[in-house]
Amino acid sequence: MDKLSFQNPLFQTYAIAASIMILKAVAMSWLTVARMMQVNGGFRSPEDVKKTMLNPNPSADQLAPNEYVDRIRRIQLNDLENLPFFLVAGFLFIWTEPPLQLVQWLLYGYVVSRLLHFAAYFTARTHDTRAILWTIGSLILIFMSCWTLVVAWQQ
Fold it and tell me: Which of 97, 112, 73, 140 is closest to 10 using CA atoms?
């Protein structure tokens, strides 16, 4: 069986988990724009306050920081800091052909931890709550990377 085939349950699990994480990260851009449109502000670049069809009444105030918009930007930045590691570590991990149940627990566990982290950040939960959820995902990445390193070292 080809390792990079949807007939391979390890790759299938990875593809599902990776796709969910990519869609979640892309959704943050859409949510940022939606919030900017709701508050007509939180823009970042000077050209954003030029008169256009979508901004018929520009104002310098639109460049002021806006917590409603910036919260989503921070969530997105956190995703962008973590998602690449997951995509690479998860792919290398499944390449070692670990047990399917372990792959499912770890990859789906990571997805759940990141979705819960998003919910905690979105609803302004304490740093401690977010840190616990981030730590779960981080430990999963460390485990998968160490597993891969050991398997690769033994070859």
Answer: 97
Q: What are the residue ranges spanned by the domains of the chain? A: 9-154
HEC readout, the chain: CCCCCCCCHHHHHHHHHHHHHHHHHHHHHHHHHHHHHHHCCCCCCHHHHCCCCCCCCCCHHHHCCCHHHHHHHHHHHHHHHHHHHHHHHHHHHHHCCCCHHHHHHHHHHHHHHHHHHHHHHHCCCCHHHHHHHHHHHHHHHHHHHHHHHHHHHHC
Q: How far apart are CA 48 and CA 34, in angstroms?
A: 15
154 — phi, psi (to 5°)?
Answer: -80, -15
Does domain 9-154 correspond to CATH entry 1.20.120.550?
Answer: yes
Among 132, 107, 75, 86, smallest CA distance to 10 is for 107
Query: pLDDT per position in the chain (155 positions), as tens?
Result: 687 777 899 999 999 999 999 999 999 999 999 999 999 989 999 898 899 998 898 888 998 999 999 999 999 999 999 999 999 999 999 999 999 999 999 999 999 999 999 999 999 999 999 999 999 999 999 999 999 999 999 97
